[in-house]
């Protein structure tokens, strides 16, 4: 994860309409709230003008801005004494629900024990329902004070799932 690089929060938000990108298939890349790049599928008309017959993506990243965003480490921490617990969570949501919004909700209700969160899969299929998608997250929980028990993690997961359903209409897959 990017946490090893001591970077601020990385976000992918729907990009503003741009003649170069295919509508709805582009994202702005923000690091700590600042725009550092973009990624998306090239608009079919642009591909046609360039005589390119296959779908093509473009990625741009301002590396200088990324390096400027590096935060110097102010302290070192000892290695954890207690093991981390990993859980996967696959959700079905409406197409317009952003992964960043789901991530924010998960972090907010992680009860202070959530130490890692990664989106690892986005899946779309007619079997999920019209205008639906599945997003899968890997959650990592860890305590500084004790080994976490299954019942503790299950209780936190129940809270997270309840809030995801209330706020975003998410259903577990």
How does this structure look, described?
- There is one protein chain.
- It contains 4 helices and 8 strands; from the N terminus they run E-E-E-H-E-H-E-H-E-E-H-E.
- The chain starts with 9 loop residues before the first strand and ends with a strand.
- It is flat and about 60 Å long.
- By secondary structure, it is of the alpha+beta class.
- Helix 3 (99-108) packs across helix 4.
C-alpha Rg (nearest Å) = 19 Å
Structural class: alpha+beta
How many domain modules?
Answer: 2
DSSP helical segment count: 4
Report the principal-axis shape: flat
Low-pLDDT segments: none
Share of β-strand residues = 35-45%
**CATH superfamily descriptor of the largest domain:** Ferrodoxin-fold anticodon-binding domain
Structure in a nutshell:
24% of the residues lie in helices and 36% in strands. The chain has 173 residues and is an alpha+beta fold.
């Amino acid at each position: 994860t990017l946490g090893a690089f001591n970077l601020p929060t990385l976000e992918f938000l729907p990009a503003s309409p741009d003649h170069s990108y295919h509508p709805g298939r582009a994202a702005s890349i923000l690091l700590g709230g600042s725009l550092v790049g973009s990624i998306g599928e090239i608009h079919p008309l642009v591909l046609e003008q360039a005589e390119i017959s296959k779908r093509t993506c473009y990625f741009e990243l301002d590396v200088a801005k990324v390096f400027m965003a590096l935060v110097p480490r102010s302290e070192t921490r000892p290695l954890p004494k207690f093991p981390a617990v990993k859980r996967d969570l696959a959700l079905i949501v409406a197409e317009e629900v952003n992964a960043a919004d789901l991530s924010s909700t998960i972090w907010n209700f992680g009860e202070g024990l959530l130490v890692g969160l990664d989106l690892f899969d986005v899946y779309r299929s007619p079997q999920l329902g019209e205008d639906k998608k599945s997003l899968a997250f890997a959650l990592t929980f860890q305590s500084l004070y004790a080994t976490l028990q299954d019942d503790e993690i299950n209780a936190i997961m129940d809270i997270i799932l309840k809030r995801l359903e209330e706020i975003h209409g998410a259903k577990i897959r």
